[in-house]
From TrEMBL:
The keyword Thylakoid does not apply. This is Galectin. Pfam families: Gal-bind_lectin. It comes from Paramormyrops kingsleyae. It comes from the Eukaryota. GO terms for cellular component: extracellular space.
Amino acid sequence: IFAFLQLTLKDMPVTATNQLKITGIPKLNAKRFSINIGLGEENIALQFDVRFEFHNDRNTTVFSYKQNNSTWTNVVKDEHFPFEQGEEFKVIITFDKDEFLVKIPGNYVKSYPNHFGAEKFMLVRVQGDVRIKSFNIE
């Protein structure tokens, strides 16, 4: 069982004109943390999952989505991993109806499809083995 820390923003729209900026510090013994953006609890358009050591993944970022509370789908793994346990990071997420752009430390930008084609999302959640220092929607 994981004891997740969690920050949830509901019913406050994040639109395609916004930038979502999250600064945090993974716990020293972190296994994983994730950033989810969705229409609601059952329809997550983007899960950006930072895995230090989780299931069979080590130092891997995983992108996926789920619709109607199904299983995570269109899973894309990326071994570019600039995250360090106990070290501050900043993630910037932007999107339009076609794609999400996730900028991680080192000016690395990863694109992931916006499978819902939405330009407004009502749920943002950061959870897992991380301490959030700042959370901004600009």
